[in-house]
């Protein structure tokens, strides 16, 4: 699909709570360059989605262009993760709407909503009403 944002301007967006196909998900993770770190096969990415509490997928002309998910125990906490929009479609409110829809689902259940992000995204999530509350650590469990 074209990297030109004008190629998408007339595309009708389809929002769904369905988990994308392994192929579609893998293609999006490759475009977002997330799989450079994850190095997961399509079926493993799909399995991660299946283990999520809620998954939202956004399609334009039947092409997966964005996704996000909540990982939750369904009682206390919900963690936002995997929110990504194809670069040529950023700045159009798609990511913001994904965040709104996911947080609304968690809010309906009275869950505490949390997320981890890189330094470069702090201002974005702060602008969506999230407050810094902790300092996170990570460890790569693959090695």
Summarize the structure in words.
- By secondary structure, this protein is α+β, with helices and mostly antiparallel strands.
- The protein is built from five helices and five strands.
- The protein has helices at residues 22-31, 35-38, 42-50, 94-108, 122-127, and strands at 13-16, 54-60, 63-72, 77-85, 112-115.
- The protein has a five-stranded mixed sheet with strand order 1-2-3-4-5, with helices on both faces.
- Strand 2 and strand 3 (63-72) form a beta hairpin.
- Helix 1 (22-31) crosses helix 3.
- The longest helix has 15 residues, at 94-108.
- It is globular and about 40 Å long.
- The N and C termini lie far apart (35 Å).
- 23% of the residues are buried.
- InterPro entries: Acyl_CoA_acyltransferase, GNAT_dom, NSI-like.
- Pfam families: Acetyltransf_1 (PF00583).
- Keywords: Acyltransferase, Transferase.
- This is N-acetyltransferase.
- It comes from Saccharibacillus endophyticus.
